[in-house]
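Quick note —
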Amino acid sequence: MTLEEVRRWTASRPTLADALGMEITDVHADYLEGRMPVDGRTHQPMGLLHGGASVALAETLGSIAAALRVDRSKQACVGLEINANHIKGVRDGWVRGRATPVHIGRSTQVWEIRITHEESGALVCISRITMAVIDLPATGPKAV
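Predicted structure written out below.
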């Protein structure tokens, strides 16, 4: 899919990504990129980027990237496990995430998501998500 097609697909209904101001910025055969603002929507009480917001960005990018690797008319990708190491605090600006595949299998996918501060390039968070690839139910007539 092209960047515009992915943006239209992901904007088809309101999501957490919308509430946090996430944007998909690049779709490539080897990765997917997006960004998220560091502001009141994504701060924790001390004025730093909330770790949960970083994980939400990582899961969003990993989930979209995984879904782009399957026939979405027949399969879906759902999260099995996600972990994150928070490396550096950020108070403002934007963070950028890049999801790259570690393993693309028939029934599972593993993605690494590196989140950096857009202005300084400093590593903010590194995350890994494992996705299950599941078959969608057949949409034809049901057997009696």
